[in-house]
Amino acid sequence: MEGIAERIDSFLVPLVVTPGDAIRFTLVEWLGFFVLFTGFAFAGWAWFYFRFILRNLLRNWLRTSLTAMATMVLVLVVTLVWTILLFLSNATSEKAKDLKAIITEKWQIPSQMPFSYEADLSEGAPSKNGDFRVDTTKDSMTWQFYGGTVDPAKRTRENIVFFFCMDPNKLMTVNDPTIDSLMASIPIPATYPYRKEETGEMVEIKSLNLTDAQKKDLEKVKNAVQKGQITSMMDGLDEMAPEELVAMRKAILLTLGDKRKVVVGRERLLALNKRIGETFKLTSLNYKDIDLEFEVAGVFPDGRYNQSAVMHRDYLNDAMDDYNRRNPGKRHPLSDKSLNLVWIRVPDTASFQKVEGQIAISPKFQSPAVKCETASSGVASFLDAYRDLLWGLRWILVPFILLTMSLIISVAISISVRERRKEMAILKVLGFAPGQILIVVLGEAVIVGILSGFLGSFSTYYLINEVIGGVKFPIAFFPAFMIPFEALWWGPTIGAITALSGSIFPSYNACRIKVSEVFARIS
Amino acid sequence: MFPTEIILYCLMGFTLFMAVFAWLAKVPIKYNLRNLLVRWQVTLMMVLAFVLQVGVLIFMFAFVNGMYKLTEGSGVPGNVIVLSDGATDEVFSNLGFADTSDVELHPTVLQSENPDDPGPLASWEVYILVNQPIPSERINGILLGGDFEGDSMKIAHVSWGGVLASGNLQVGDVLQKFNGFTPANHESLQKLLAGKMSGIAPLDFNRNGSPHQTFCDLGKLAQVGSTRRFLQVRGIDNPTRSLAVHNLPLRSGGKVFSQAGVQTIKGPNGIATSAWEVILGEGIARTLASDQKKTTLEAGDTFTVADRIWVVVGVMKSSGSTFDSEIWAKRTLVGPLFGKNSYSTVVLRTKDADSAEITAAELTKSFKKSAIQATPEKEYYARLNTTNQQFLYSILFVAFVVLIGGSLGMMNAMFAAISQRLKDIGVLRIIGFAPWQILFSFLLEALLLSLIGGLLGCAAGFLADGWSASSIVSGGAGGGKSVVLKMTVDGQILVFGMLFSLTVGLIGGLVPAISAMFIKPLDALR
Amino acid sequence: MEPIVEVTHLGKNFRRGLEEIHVLSNLSLQVPQGEFLALMGPSGSGKTTLLNLIAGLDSPTQGSIRVGKELISAMGESRLAKWRTRHVGFVFQFYHLLPVLTAYENVELPLLLLPLTYSERKKQVLTALDLVGLSDRLSHRPGQLSGGQQQRVGIARAIVTDPTLIVADEPTGDLDSKSAEEILELLVILKGALNKTILMVTHDPRAANRAERCLHLEKGQLVNETYQNFNVHTQAVSH
Fold first, then answer.
1. In Å, how far are A33, A125, B165, B217, B507 from B171, measured between CA atoms?
2. Which of A49, B455, C7, C136 could be a cystine partner for C29, CB 3.0 to 4.6 Å?
3. What residues of C are in contact with residue B431 (Cβ under 8 Å)?
4. Which residue range forms the structural domain that includes residue C192?
């Protein structure tokens, strides 16, 4: 829930205008004000209806709550599906600024390139003056994968770890040395949120006991992300608390100092039944005969990297070299295939095209050839196999569920109109116009729709994100989909629209009720 | 996909219950039916809701069922597949021929009965996943990237999977005399490029989109044209033998690829060019054909992968198996091209399923020259169902949620029915009907409603049968095959659909019906 | 002759909130076989409660009720329900026919609870409907019948099981005087022809006049008892 509160804060921040800023409103904001004011004006007029409607809803609370619950659970399904679709469409839509490019072997899957490509590819293969040169200190990274099991006899999921081998600096790059020394001065251990006692036991840190100056430093660390003094090739840096940033940096420094040290996600660590500071040995699954020993230096902050593990790429590469030295004449079969991906970050589309061209014409990458594509088009390629499935989710499942919702609301409203024919007739006798009766009936449906829709998406948001930890739908390589914050308005919108469409027919019936008929039937 | 017996028993149980309810309740069924008709609007909406819910569930199940059918249908009962030890998927398997060649000499391996192709029934294969840029709707010709210097362009890359890419136009070529890219001069560019390439269809800039855009906005093109699909290429030494091992006949008019695996074809502009011969599965033949606006590729058609022209010589009757999505070509050509010089698998044919099992066990245990792992082929493919299972669970989850939603809607309708018929209940009770008979009567009404809805929903869901769709099947740990599956609605899915709707009827009807039990007859009549 | 209904020291209390309301107290009553008895009294006098108790729709707080040979005040709810099916026929003020069922099906309803074959049921339903003079309205729904006709269907439903007792709660209360007269006539004829015991609650003195005996209740007590000299009309009513 904390997460939500913070996000609401950040959502509200733009509304609070600090004195220093010139007061400028965008069109959207003006529109917002307009809607707000008309809303208030409308509310006064609507209050009468609202009370009337509310009383009707509460009178048959059983029906109201059944309808609301049905709407809620169906909103759950729609929210889950839309979360997946939205995430995928975001992941595959091209960015114009700060885009990530992925360099892989040209034709084959899985991509395997010689590590000797690393230096040139990381720079974007510039060959002459005027070529675009990628800043390798912060805007590129390499990926190698090393997987192994702690127990070669038992290769269960719990026993297997897959390491991303990279330059640990790329997890979190500190571009400003003052920030680095600032971080070093803040007494947060690399093992945060745990502390190692003298007995060797790990204890959860309850409070940090920082001085005011240190708290100010922590604030600076937080700002450093916004200012670009701290960057990362990975996503999710902006989700991290400053304490976590400091701890992460310290863990990274540890791995840089001793390549045996690794950073592991907390769920993976739990599955392995290891703790920070402990060591374990892996029998490799993909690098045959290259078995390595590791020491856990830190954990990833809670979140998307809970299942991940990161090791220093030098550890693997040195081990490979060592293997080839020890076995003269018998090179390791993966010697020239150990580089899997290179990521680079470029500021805009034009630079991407330049780099793409540079890599394409470079004579250095012939066997195997390589390709450079934007991250989004790389993702899109993987998703191509799922296009029919996604089409089905988008155009069959969701519409069908929405229609079902609409029908369920329609049934409820039809029933309540049928039961209240006499009342409606009395209202007509009292001088209510058909339009007013229409508003009462539609209003009933829409209020139920909006409220239950909101409850539905809010509980989905809470349940999926905070309790379950994301929608675990096995598509491509995405481990879990988190419900986005904007999903909170999906529910009310879905609720309002389905309720409105579902209640058109019954409310039309209601306002067409003939007084004479109703009373004739009663007498 | 589901444990068939269990759901069948459940359905039978339901039917039995309904019959017993009807018999015990004594309230005539026509009473319920007529009441359903009297409030026909609500009934109609409920039935429609059932049709939608059951229909969409059947649709989704048909998809997963198609995946299951595919993994179950792949493989021949008598076949044994040999992979290198530790490989979970053939993508990760490496077999050296020198170390492994003896496996085909195992005594249980059958001999080919084809007099033209004698030898053990063993298929030596290398399996490669290759990506192919998908020709997009907007550009249908060329994707060039490069530096513009004055009125010439140095070609930085020609990475288009369409017609041009395999021509003589090379990276590094300079296109001269090229005064900007405008619609007016695109014809001259066309000529210029056509002259550069031999054996290639003339570029068709006009077909989709404006040529102006095609040539000015290279950056955009790079993105639009760069969606890829993953092709499964199987390099084969002896296609006749491999087809026999896998029991895959060719469609009439097709033949296997030649010893060389290459032929010279005549390009549309009359210049000869060499092309690699391939045999396609029916599914991939349709997929590749869609790029060329055809329904399927046939012998003689060409397509482009990895900057090369490939010519179809035959199409396998492969539907219902994962081979449906494969491209078979000469191993000695495709292996080196994609950097895979070893074999990934050998498939051996034995007499029957039992002997396959025995052979697999023996080979795994006692083959000493290299570490191999032999599995009956059926078992290997059956293991590729992790994705199927995950999809199935996801759908079951959706079904569960929809079940709750549907039940709540049903409760609404039934509570209303009961409150409308309080007097009827009062009379029935006074006449001497017992509370449980009232319960059964209303429960039966809910079940009737759900029965009608379920039947119609099944009928609607049946429309999903036979659609083709693409998906991925995999055994979990990496790998995975893109497949073209046929959505299949069969008995067990329909039974499941009925079971679903009856369960909605049961849950949605039970709670209100129980409440009807407690109605006091004298109060009801007051 | 032994009375068919014997009520002894009957008391019935209702609870409304904390208050205990004595609806009936220490009421004793005997009804001989074949009597047409009317219960009269102001509203709240307990006449309907008494009727419900005798018909086995409710159980008394004190005292006992015997109908025929059975002590119904000692029966549980489900036994009472079974007993009602066989021994009591109900006629209601608002007829209370099931609107979706035809006249025939409405009359058949109580027979469904008895172990009868289809043809036996059919015979009995047709006889009952014939007795009330509605043989030509078998497949009409209640909505298609007049109030008087609906009440005849109600009566047919009450007699179809050949019950020991027919109880009627204001059977003419919702009818115009002509139809009311016809219904009362019908009850009298049936009583005579079938020798049924009829208990009728009414506050219409004209209806009470058709009964052989009339009991007046006030505040849960019997206050008055009138016998009427009454000649049974034996000729059939034709329609």
1. 57, 16, 10, 19, 68
2. C7
3. 84-85, 90, 109-110, 113, 157
4. 34-60+74-227
Q: Find out whether A236 and A303 touch, Cβ atoms under 8 Å.
A: yes
**In chain A, residues 208-227 whose CB comes closer than 8 Å to chain B:** none
Q: Closest Cα of chain B to A419: distance in Å? A: 8
pTM exceeds cut of 0.90:
no
* Tokens, residue C137: 């309205």
For residue A505, give every residue at least 6 positions away whose Cβ sits within 8 Å of its Cβ, in sequence order, or none: A410, A414
Chain C residues close to B417, C-beta within 8 Å: none
Name the residue ranges covered by the structural domains of chain B. Answer: 4-73+385-525, 79-134+228-382, 144-224
3-state secondary structure A146-215: EEEECCCCCCCHHHEEEEEEECHHHCCEECCHHHHHHHHHCCCCCCCCEEECCCCCEEECCCCCCCHHHH
Establish whether the linkage from the previous residue to A193 is cis, with ω within 30° of 0: yes
For chain C, say whether B440 makes contact (Cβ under 8 Å): no
Q: Where are the domains of chain A?
A: 2-92+387-522, 149-333
In this structure, what token pair is assigned to residue A435? 């339009």
C-alpha A448/C-alpha A416 separation (Å) is: 13
Strands B122-133 and B228-236: what pairing?
antiparallel
Please state the three-class secondary structure of B328-388 as a single string: EEEHHHHHHHCCCCCECEEEEECCCHHHHHHHHHHHHHHCCCCCEEEEEHHHHHHCCCHHH
Q: Name every residue whose Cβ is closer than 8 Å to that of residue B513 and which is 6 or more positions away in sequence.
A: B414, B418, B438, B439, B440, B441, B442, B443, B446
Pick among A66, A84, A97, A358 to test the B interface (most B CBs inside 10 A): A66
Residues 324-363 of A with CB under 8 A from B: 333, 349-350, 352-353, 356-358, 360-361
Best to test chain B binding among A400, A448, A452, A521 (most B CBs inside 10 Å): A400
> B interface mutation test: which of C51, C96, C141 has the most B CBs within 10 A?
C96
Complex ipTM, two decimals? 0.87
Say if the Cβ atoms of C84 and B433 lie within 8 Å: no
Task: Decide if C16 is inside a domain.
Answer: no
CATH number at residue C47: 3.40.50.300
- Are the C-beta atoms of A237 and A225 separated by less than 8 Å? yes
Is residue C28 assigned to a domain?
no
- Residue pair A149/A282 in contact by the 8 Å Cβ criterion: yes
CA distance A433 to chain B (A): 25
Chain B positions in Cβ-Cβ contact with residue C57 (cut-off 8 Å): 430, 521-522
**Number of domains making up chain C:** 1
Q: Which residues contact B497 (CB under 8 A, 6 or more apart)?
A: B54, B57, B58, B61, B454, B457, B458, B461
Question: What gap in Å lies between CA A251 and CA A297, rounded to an integer?
Answer: 6
Contact partners for chain B, using 3 or more CB pairs closer than 8 A, are A, C
**C100–B522: do the CB atoms touch at under 8 Å?**
no
